[in-house]
Every structure is written in C-alpha cells, then in structure tokens.
Specification:
- The protein has one domain: 2-Layer Sandwich (Heat Shock Protein 90), CATH 3.30.565.10.
- Helix content is 44%, strand content 23%.
- It has five helices and five strands, in the order αααβαββαββ.
- A hairpin with a 5-residue loop joins strand 4 and strand 5.
- Helix 1 runs antiparallel to helix 3, helix 3 packs parallel to helix 4 and helix 4 runs antiparallel to helix 5.
- The radius of gyration is 15 Å and the shape is globular.
- The N and C termini lie far apart (47 Å).
C-alpha cells in the first residue's frame, strides 16, 4: 500500500507541477523520473532533492543513466529502507549524489566481469567527459558522486 501511495503521489505531483516534456528535456524532472522508475521497479523509497535546472544534453543524459544504475544497485544490494538522491545544477556543472546507509562493499571485491559500477557508472561518465567517485566500505553504506560539466548555451 505504501508503494502504491508513493507512486500515485509522484504521478499527481508530476501532473500538477510539470509539463509532460520536462522529464525528457531538463535535469530536475529527469532525475525525479529516473528515481520514480527505480522505486517502482524495486520497491525501495528514493527521496530526491534537486537544486537548479538545465536542459539535458548528451553528457547529462549519460549522467542520468549512470545515476539510475547507482539507484538500482543501491535498491538491489544495500539492504536499506531508503535511498537519498541530491542533485545540484549550476552554471558550469551538474552534480548528482546517490547515497544509502546500507551494507556498503569493498570496491576491490567486485569481480572483473561485473560491469555495473565499472561500465555503467564510472565508464559511462568518463566516456561523456564527466567523473564518478564511489565512497563505500562494508557496513558504512555507499555514496556515488557524479560530476558532469555543462555545455555553455550558444
């Protein structure tokens, strides 16, 4: 029931406050949409706060996909009741933090054939000119920091 209520609350807020195209064209509603999809798919509540907004370009689109992968990983493996996502958009860059207070892990223990963190987060960000930092250790939760420079408006 809580999950259904959260899905309906997000849908109502989206209907009341956003134009339908916003989730595809600007950062804040795009990040909220990604979080809502992961929450609905995996059942772990995701709280999103985003300050500022900007158009989505190729780099930021890749960043949203990397943030989605970080949210999915936290939902599947952290063993936590909630995930926090914080976004900040300024004139020069977009930052996204995905945090959980769950199990954490040792980055060195990830098998080479597992590409979620390496390929879908770190590699994706690097291929598009951004960076990803992962802070974690067993028992201490995980924080994924994504940083993408903005392309100046023409």
């Amino acid at each position: 029931m809580q999950r259904l209520a959260r899905v309906q609350e997000r849908a109502l807020r989206s209907w009341l406050y956003q134009r339908p195209a916003d989730a595809e064209t600007t950062v804040t509603p795009g990040l909220e949409r990604v979080a809502a999809e992961v929450e609905e798919e995996h059942g772990v509540p995701i709280e999103v706060v985003c300050v500022g907004d900007a158009p989505i370009d190729d780099g930021i689109s890749a960043m949203l996909r990397a943030a989605r992968e970080a949210m999915v990983n936290a939902s599947k493996y952290a063993g936590t009741d909630t995930i926090s996502v914080f976004g900040e958009v300024d004139e020069t860059e977009v930052l996204v933090f995905v945090r959980d207070r769950g199990a954490g892990f040792d980055l060195d223990d990830i098998p080479e054939d597992r590409m979620g963190v390496r390929g879908s987060i770190v590699g994706r960000m690097e291929r598009h000119g951004g960076t990803a930092r992962i802070r974690t250790e067993p028992g201490e939760g995980t924080e994924v920091q994504l940083r993408m420079p903005r392309i100046p408006d023409m």
